[in-house]
Amino acid sequence: MIKRSSRTPVPGKPDQHSLDGRLTNLGFGVFVAALALGVLISLWFQATTCFESCRTSRTTLAYVVTYSGFAAACVLAFGGARRAAGRGTMRAIWPAVGIVVVFVSIVIGIKIAESV
Predict the structure, then answer these.
(1) Source organism's superkingdom (predicted)?
(2) pTM confidence score
């Protein structure tokens, strides 16, 4: 009699761990792309604003909020996926949470920066 480990897929039955792994990898790829887009947006804002009269305190606050959001998104995405892997639950949700936090922090940073 052949013993099957929990990681060995049963013939004819989709492997849940494989699907979760693929979705997690795809999610982290999109997450890294969202972070890169956020950094480009913040650099573009820096290059195109504040030529004459500029309230640097608002601009600084916008950068602090945006980059703090990026850091929180990284902690949520990577920490959540690691914890989910330890518990044996679905990991693919955590990169999506990170992507949402990245875009929310970008929007909040833009709104603060527009008030300059």
Answers:
(1) Bacteria
(2) 0.78
